[in-house]
UniProtKB/TrEMBL annotation, chain A:
It is a multi-pass membrane protein. The chain crosses the membrane at residues 48-65, 72-89, 95-117, 124-142, 162-192, 213-233, 245-263, 270-291, 297-323. It holds the Pfam family BPD_transp_2. It is found in: Cell membrane. Its main location: membrane. This is Monosaccharide ABC transporter membrane protein (CUT2 family). InterPro entries: ABC_transp_permease. PANTHER family: ABC TRANSPORTER PERMEASE PROTEIN YPHD-RELATED-RELATED, GALACTOFURANOSE TRANSPORTER PERMEASE PROTEIN YTFT. Keywords: Cell membrane, Membrane, Transmembrane, Transmembrane helix. It comes from Bradyrhizobium huanghuaihaiense. GO terms for cellular component: plasma membrane. It comes from the Bacteria. One of its GO terms (molecular function) is transmembrane transporter activity.
TrEMBL record, chain B:
This is Monosaccharide ABC transporter membrane protein (CUT2 family). GO terms for cellular component: plasma membrane. It is found in: Cell membrane. The keyword Cell membrane applies. The keyword RNA-binding does not apply. It comes from Bradyrhizobium huanghuaihaiense.
Length: 330, 326
């Protein structure tokens, strides 16, 4: 795990502690946990549980951003995969449902990756296409209705518990460990960072940059699919209009809070997930404090700006990176 | 003659699409339908004009939808609750949105941050601020509103060219003149072509960046006022996702998303194409509205792929530089 958590995580951990402390002041029961029917309940568990979709999205997004890309379509992919899972849930077994939903996510990721890696489109533009069309496709699948289901297997995925922890949290944790093991346990993470650092130099050095880019978008699609299935399982239905709406922005925000540079070249999985938790802790805190949830957006805006401004002098201070920035702009 | 071929292709798509629609539903080819199309897409046309400037300069502005939403709420509250005369309210909101855009441009330039993430923060900020003002829809009953809504020029064939459609057309023409005939417009192209080169040529990059985002937000403010005329209400959730529609219109209009090429007229045609798809779906009746999104996505893909091909052709002798794609 030490490989996953570099020294620069201190600021994020401090931020999380401060926000948790503020939440504790706002709501004295914030840290209370109680065991009921073999499952833990409490605000902290709630934060983890509700933070799961964004945490899953940020796991995929952080790898995409590490290659100097961005994936705007994750919210739409969530809607598509949630819709597929919901429409199959009552007629097929869980393995089929999961395979179909994750397969769809994989195809979406493959499409994005194809546009970026093979056709050489700008990532923002390439993924914008699926962001616009994806919600339409999701509505095509649900035929414009909100599809509900009662399959206990799928519902368990959203509301069940394992060892006292909600299933979504366990899944997210599993995905974090799996992703971490794959990218940091091998040279893959390094190659991804090399691709983002300087695609041309990496290519010349023998890194299969196209394969790397394709792979991160596919992984991002799969993570989004999983988030979509969990979101659908949570509400026992799929709403093509609202599932995952604006979550792509939250995922990008989580990655940025996690200290991953939008210019690629370095990333931290754990800190991205921590970023997602910070966002969710703020959301929950605002809800508990009795302020209208509308404050969420304002607070988020202020946090993004603060994080960006904190990061920016670091950029301009390092001459090498600054030169690279200028070349990006050019 | 920058960006002429893509604009021609857009025009051909529009004419061909319109011909197909007219063949299937002869009633589409009437001034009534065209007049309504212009009215329904007036705010989109205005905001897309501003977006064209931003994208040609190599940036992007994700905050415009939220600025429209904020404007409608602010105008509605100012007129109905605070008793401000409509004209004063309009001036105030236009000043406010211009300042907002200038601030975003300043942050982008001074801190050298990606426009994408700064305007994303702006989007949260403006939407959050409109939620704070009011979360419910506020109807506007001021007499100005009914006067403007009732005003329309009669076109031959019974069509009505409404006041907001006229405002949109004036802004599109003004935007085209500003972009293609002035020093400011030339600088916008220079900035999108290459920021470094532009700065070496003596373009005040910082001032230009601020002005461009100011223009985009100002036009979003005007679009918000037009939107409030259109709906006679202010609602904090209005115009959600308009930033995507306007980016799509700009791209379909043949503007290069990497900057440096494009035109306001193309954007206008792009808006019309989107409106045409919507109208076709309305006429058909059996197709659901989500086909609009899919059709827009397909068009978006087709045009971007086309651009990619054109750019690849144009830059072939220069070899494939890594910077070209990013």
């Amino acid at each position: 795990m030490t490989a996953l958590l570099p020294r620069r995580g201190l600021a994020q951990i401090l931020a999380l502690i401060v926000i948790l402390a503020v939440d504790r002041v706002v709501s004295p029961q914030f840290f209370d946990l109680r065991l009921q029917d073999g499952r833990l309940f409490g605000s902290l568990i709630d934060v983890l549980n509700r933070g799961t979709p964004v945490a899953l999205l940020s796991l995929g997004m952080v790898l995409v951003i590490a290659t100097r890309g961005i994936d705007l379509s994750v919210g739409a992919v969530m809607a598509i995969c949630g819709a597929i899972a919901a429409s199959l849930a009552d007629s097929h077994g869980l393995p089929v449902v999961l395979a179909a939903a994750l397969g769809a996510g994989l195809v979406c990721g493959l499409w994005n990756g194809f546009l970026v890696a093979v056709l050489g489109m700008q990532p923002i533009v390439a993924t914008l296409i699926l962001m616009v069309a994806g919600r339409g496709i999701a509505q095509l699948i649900t035929e414009g209705r909100i599809v509900t289901f009662s399959s206990p297997d799928l519902v368990w995925l959203g509301n069940g518990s394992v060892l006292g922890l909600p299933v979504p949290v366990v899944i997210a944790l599993g995905m974090l460990i799996l992703t971490g093991a794959v990218v940091r346990g091998s040279a893959l993470g390094l190659l991804i960072e090399a691709t983002g650092g300087n695609a041309r130099a990496s290519e010349l050095a023998g890194v299969g940059t196209r394969a790397m880019i394709l792979a991160v978008y596919v992984w991002c699609g799969v993570c989004a699919a999983l988030a979509g299935v969990i979101a659908a399982a949570d509400i026992m239905g799929a709403d093509a209009n609202n599932a995952g709406l604006w979550l792509e922005l939250d995922a990008i925000l989580a990655v940025v809070i996690g200290g991953t540079s939008l210019f690629g070249g370095r990333f931290s999985l754990v800190l991205a997930v921590l970023g997602a938790l910070i966002i969710q802790t703020m959301n929950t805190g605002i809800l508990l404090s009795g302020y209208p949830p509308e404050f969420n957006l304002l607070v988020k805006a202020v946090v993004v700006l603060a994080v960006l401004l904190l990061q920016s002098p670091k950029f301009s201070g390092l001459a090498g990176i600054a030169a690279r920035l200028r070349r990006t702009k050019a | 003659m920058k960006g002429l071929p893509p604009v021609l292709i857009t025009a051909i798509v529009l004419v061909a699409g319109f011909a197909i629609c007219a063949m299937q539903f002869p009633n589409i080819a009437s001034t009534r339908v065209v007049g309504n199309l212009l009215t329904d897409n007036a705010f989109l046309g205005i905001v897309a004009t501003g977006m064209t400037f931003v994208i040609i300069s190599g940036g992007i502005d994700l905050s415009v939808g939220s600025v429209i939403g904020f404007t409608t709420v602010f105008v509605a509250l100012a007129i109905e609750r605070w008793g401000v005369p409509p004209l004063v309210a309009f001036m105030a909101i236009l000043a406010l949105s211009a300042a907002f855009g200038a601030a975003m441009g300043a942050v982008i330039h001074v801190f050298d941050l990606p426009p994408f993430i700064v305007t994303l923060a702006g989007m949260f900020l403006a939407r959050g601020a409109s939620f704070l003002l009011s979360t419910e829809s506020v109807p506007i009953t001021a007499p100005v509103y009914s006067t403007v809504s009732d005003f329309a020029l009669r076109m031959p064939g019974g069509g009505r060219l409404t006041a907001i459609a006229i405002i949109m057309l004036v802004i599109v023409i003004g935007g085209a003149l500003l972009l293609h005939l002035t020093r400011f417009g030339a600088n916008v192209y220079a900035l999108g072509g290459s920021r470094t080169t532009a700065s070496l040529m003596g373009v005040a990059v910082g001032k230009m960046t601020i002005k461009i985002y100011m223009l985009s937000s100002l036009l979003a403010g005007i679009a918000g006022i037009v939107f409030s005329f259109y709906t006679s209400a202010g609602y904090s959730l209005s115009a959600v996702g308009v930033e995507l529609d306007s980016i799509a219109a700009v791209v379909i209009g043949g503007t290069l998303l990497t900057g440096g090429q494009g035109s306001v007229i193309g954007t206008f045609l792009g808006v019309l194409i989107q409106g045409m798809i919507q109208t076709y779906i309305n006429f058909d009746g059996t197709l659901s509205s989500w086909w609009t999104k899919i059709a827009t996505g397909v068009l978006l893909f087709a045009f971007i792929a086309l651009q990619q091909g054109l750019v690849a052709l144009a830059r072939r002798p220069v070899a494939k530089s890594a910077g070209a794609a990013s």
